[in-house]
Every structure is written in structure tokens, then in C-alpha cells.
Amino acid sequence: MCKNKLTSKLSKTLSCLSAIVFASTVAADVDPKAPDKTVEESSLKWEVIQVTATKRVTNLNDTSLAISAYDSKMMDDLGISTGADYLNLTPSLSYNSNPARIYIRGVGLQDNQPGVDSGVALYVDGIYSNNALDINRSSFDTQRIEIVRGPQGTLFGRNATGGAVSIVTKRPTEETESTFRMGLGNFNTQKFNFATSGSLSDEMRYRASVGTESRDGYINNLGGPDLDSMDADNWNLGIEYDFSDNIQLFTRAYGYSANHISAGDLGYQLSPYYSQANITALSGSPAGVVVGAGEGDPNISALYANLQDGYTTINPSVNDPRTVDLNSVPIRDTETLGFVVDLTWDIGATTLRYIGGYEDAEVDVEGEDLDRTSRLFDIDTDGKTGGQLEISLLDKGERTSHELQLLSNNDGPLNWV
């Protein structure tokens, strides 16, 4: 009985060994150079993103900087359309659209007054820009956005204590192609973009684009036009020309115009708008303050609007933060025209590059309602009623930029700019 069991176990062991030897023989007959289709078909293809944050074209993974880069395809895939969309994707980045400010590692613009420099340098095609709203550029005309964290004064000069943002627009293509993009949304939002690109000759290429965007205001205004409506247009014309195999010119002209009824600061939600009688009752006896005619306790009156004017109408923003009552709305008109010139000369061991640009910008803000109500004031000297409190601002500026670079062309470990 024991002998039969031992024989059975020995037979099974020999059968297993035979199967292993047979499988090894079959595997040895397979050509080792034949491609593994399973591995080949399932292998991941990594997309290579090239950046120019070091003043030369490098692979993002090989660039020794704390940098986040997004090309146009990635922007579309991630749904990036405004500067706020980068916040969840880029470490140490903060952005505010009103007022427009960019912060990297806590360093940025502290005041939007003219003459105040930001701690984050913003460049568009190598030209410095003091307009933080440029980070809102869409992927339609943008090839790549690079956000570099940490001090970058060596490569970007002043105003780069916190970091730098470099925006590269799309260049002309050799093959003829056209692109149309349309977007529709609520509040009658409409976006239309069209671009065409191609070759005019063996040496010259072009890219031209136009775009328009409009939407109705989504802040209901009982006293006038709704707030935060917009109507904007833009255009770009880029030309690339090869003087020779070593000398290449790229130039781009652009324009932007917008009419925007700003939403402003909607944090005025105290109600009702207290009259002088209300303030007198609030500030009077407990603290021993005697309030005379036309006066109020400054510690309390600073909290409320329209104290001296007896405006007791209920503020609609208390019940609905998207509803206001203004008789004067802040209309912001923006006009921008400019051009960029980028000339590159490959001398052999070095590359000489010139980047120049000019921009003429004008921002006109009219009608911001200072009292945040629809009340008319008796502010005329003849005693007639009908005036209103508002503020207007006109900001005009011209910007010229010139930069000359000399870069090494060697592939060794030592490179210089």
C-alpha cells in the first residue's frame, strides 16, 4: 500500500518536470529579437514638454528649476481658461483677478498704484508685462505657459524675487491649417476664435487670428445696467522669416479692446442704510456720547453707508448677494496695441538674440458709484437735487523693451548666457 502511494507521487513529480522541460524548450525556440506585442502595445508614451525658462530650449524633466509648464493641449485637457485655474495645479502660486495680482511663495504685488513693482516677473514672448491679467490668456493663441518658483533675478532681472511667469504665443506653421473654436454659456456668453497659419514662400510663414467674447452681466442691478458684463475683441498677426539657415526673424503685432462693466467690490451688505436718527440711537447714552445735529459716533458711522443722507431703503444685497442698487456703474474701457520683434543669429559656438517690443495701453474707468446706492444727492451750489457720487480714472502708458542675449551652443555640462 505504501509502495503504491510512493510510486504515484513519483509519477506526478516526473510529469511536472517533463512539463517544465517542454515549456523551456518551446521558449528557447522563440526568436529573442522578435518584438513583444503585448508590451509594445501597452507601453506608455510620455509627452515631452520643452521650456525656455533658462533662455534656451530644454526638456522640462531635465531643467533644474522649480518649474510648472502647461502647453496648449494640456491647458485644454485640464480645462484651464483663467489664471485662477492654475491654483490647484501649481504649488506656491496665488492669483487674484480684482485687483490683478500674482503671488509666488508669498511674494507679489502689494499695491496696484502706478509705479509699484511686482515681486513676480511676467513675460509675454520675452517682453516684460506689468499686467497680471495676461495670465488669463486662452490656449487658442498660447503655445505654453511656464511658472518658475523662487528668485529668478539671474535670468529674468529685477522684479523676480518670488518667481517668474513666461507666456509663449503660438508661432506660424509650415503647413497650411485653420482652426475655429466656439463657446456658448449661460448669461448669453459667446466666444468665437478663428486662426489660420501656413507658408507664404519657402522662407516666410504666417499666423493670423481674431477672437471675440461677450456676456451679459450676472449681478442684477436694480438702479441701472447689470454688472460684470463684457464685450472684448482681440487680434494677432505673426510672421516668421528665414534670412538664411542661421538667421531667423519672428515678429508679432497684436491688439485688444474691451468694454467691461465691472462688478467692483460687492461687500456692501449692511441693511438698512442707516439714517442719522439710527446712528444717534445706536451711539448715544451707553457710552455717554452726546450726538449733535448732523453728527454721529465715528466708531459706528464708519460701519455704514450714507449716514448723513437719511437713506433708509433696504439694501438688496443682504437677501441676495447677486443683487445691487446702483445708479452709476463702473465702466472699464481698455485699448491695447503693440508688437514684438525676435531676431536670432546662430554664429556657431554662440547664438546672438535680440528681443524688442512696444506697447501702447489705455484704461478708462468711469462711473464707479462711491455710495453704493441709487440715491441722488443735493451737491449743487444752487440747491438743486440730482447729483451723484462717482469716481473716474484714466490710465495711459507706453512701454518699450530691448534685450540683447548671447548664449552658448555647446552640448557639454557648462553653458552660459
What does it look like?
The structure is a single chain. A hairpin with a 2-residue loop joins strand 7 and strand 8. This protein is about 15% helix and about 40% strand. Strands 11-12-13-15-16-18-19-20 form an eight-stranded antiparallel sheet, with no helix packed on it. Strands 3-9-10-7-8 form a five-stranded mixed sheet. A three-stranded antiparallel sheet has the order 4-5-6, with no helix packed on it. Mean pLDDT is about 80; it is low at about 1-5, about 15-45, about 275-310 and about 380-385. With about 425 residues, it is mainly beta. It starts with a helix and ends in a 9-residue tail after the last strand. It is built from six helices and 20 strands. It is globular.
Number of helices: 6
* Inertia-based shape: globular
Tell me the Rg in angstroms: 33 Å
| Uncertain runs | 1-7, 16-44, 274-308, 379-385
Counted beta strands: 20
- Which bin fits the share of residues in helices? 10-25%
Average pLDDT taken over every residue: 78
Spatial strand arrangement across the major sheet: 11-12-13-15-16-18-19-20
Q: Tell me about the biggest sheet? A: 8 strands, antiparallel
The chain-level structural class is mainly beta
Spatial separation of the terminal alpha carbons = 89 Å
| Helix-strand topology string | HHEEEHEEEEEEHEEEEEEEHHEEEE
Strand proportion: 35-45%
